[in-house]
Amino acid sequence: MTGERTEVVVTDLKRTQIVMYAGASGDYNPLHTDEPFATQVAGNPTVMAHGMLTMGLAGRVLTGWFGHENILRYRARFKAPVWPGDTLTVTAKVTGMAEGRAEITLSAVNATGTEVLTGTATALITDSARDLAPGVSDAARDPAPGVSDAARDLAPGVSDAAQDPAPGVPDAVRNGAAR
User: Fold this and answer.
1) Please, what's the b/e burial string for 11-36 (b: 16 or more CB within 10 A of its CB; e: otherwise)?
2) pLDDT recorded at residue 126
3) In angstroms, rounded to a whole number, what is the distance separating the alpha carbons of residues 43 and 81?
4) Residue 142: C-alpha distances to residues 25, 101, 157, 168 (Å)
5) Is the dihedral of CA 128, 139, 133, 125 positive or negative?
6) Where are the beta strands (DSSP E) in 58-162?
7) 73 φ/ψ angles, rounded to the nearest 5 degrees
8) Is the Cα torsion angle 132, 133, 137, 140 positive or negative in sign?
9) What is the chain's Cα-based Rg?
10) Alpha-carbon torsion 44, 45, 46, 50, what sign?
């Protein structure tokens, strides 16, 4: 099974967004915040967006598709700078399914088609994601196929960790309370 989503995650990236990210992250590297440094010292056409800002924008496709609480792993490689004024389009593809988890690849391109980010992610497939990922089989979504909910609750000698499809993820995060 494969599924795919393509979304524009930002149109005309504003310098204000870059400055706001610098403030939120504490990353005031002059490549991102100081126009004279970025142009005269570094030789860039202007300041550039933080790689992690680009990664966060690309991650919107994952969280919109699977829910933020179901993203277990997300990794990215920054391939080209993102500049003020850029429009970014992200394509996420499900490349594999196993044990209730989806393996996903991502690619972000700017308006000229230059790939600026590639990445991979792992997401839990839940009932809410089922509606968002058409074509994903029920068997692929279930972390313990053939085991009823009652049996999971009553299975003697089976630790909660063994029954938990996302060990180490606090219930508040899973339930969407921690945002």
Assistant:
1) eebebeebeebbeeeeeeeebbbeee
2) 82
3) 13
4) 37, 8, 21, 19
5) positive
6) 71-78, 88-98, 101-109, 115-124
7) -150, 140
8) negative
9) 20
10) negative
Q: What are phi and psi of 158, to 5 degrees?
A: -100, 120
Q: What pLDDT digit, counting tens, does each position of 139-172 carry?
A: 444 444 444 444 334 434 444 444 444 444 455 4
Cα 28–chain centre separation: 24
| 15 pLDDT more than 60 | yes
Q: Which residue has the higher pLDDT, 132 or 55?
A: 55
Q: How far is CA 68 from the centre of its chain?
A: 8
Distance, in Å, from the CA atom of 62 to the CA atom of 91, rounded to the nearest integer, reads 10
Q: What is the DSSP letter of 84?
A: T
Q: How far apart are CA 50 and CA 12, in angstroms?
A: 15
pLDDT tens across 59-108, in order? Answer: 999 999 999 999 999 999 999 999 999 999 999 999 999 999 999 999 99
Longest dimension (CA), the chain: 68
d(CA 129, CA 141): 9
- One-letter identity of residue 13: L
Strand partners, 94: 104
The pair of structure tokens assigned to 31 is 């490549």
The two structure tokens encoding residue 2: 């494969």
